[in-house]
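To whoever is on call:

I kicked off a structure prediction for a single chain this morning and the downstream step that reads the tokens threw a length-mismatch warning. I double-checked the sequence; it's 187 residues and nothing unusual in it as far as I can see. Pasting both halves so you can look.
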Amino acid sequence: MQEQVQRREATARTQRSFLPTLVPGLLQTAEYARLVFIASDLSGEQDYAAAVQRRLDRQQLLYDQAHTFEFILTEAALRWRPGSREVLISQLDRIASVATLSNVTIGVIPLDAESRAIAWHGFTLNEDVDDGEPFVQVETMHAYLTVARPKDVELYRRQYDVLRESAATGQACSDFLSELRAEFLAG
């Protein structure tokens, strides 16, 4: 599945991702990704090492300035613990590092932020698609769904815009990540 997602991601020049429950794959550290794969493997048949390597391979796209990324995460996603506090601290450091890239914007919706949208599920809005139309990827427990009907894609655009209004970005996001990191360090 990682290879299929990688091929689809490479065709979109602009990606906007919202994930309410965990850190998006393009931002995950290797250890966080490994723990996510273990937690999500209901069959017990997944090759974790190969899955982690493919996920890390996908992350190379972040460094391609021809692509633009925007991520909106929730505080709840940043607090979800698939492993030790150290895993979360490393994960926060990774997010803060990626946020310094000029083609990446990261926003966090704090738990105490006023919300104007229901976070039904995560999704990635893919726009500026090479030789194609915009599409949305929705990850479910067992599959990736692709939404391509223009009317439906527009619903996801509007949902994303409303979610963005509640997100801390720029310096406010950096400060939030630093405060959360300090909290995890304090134990």
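Update from on-call: the warning came from a stale cache, not from the record. Cleared it. Sanity check on the structure: The longest strand covers residues 12-19.
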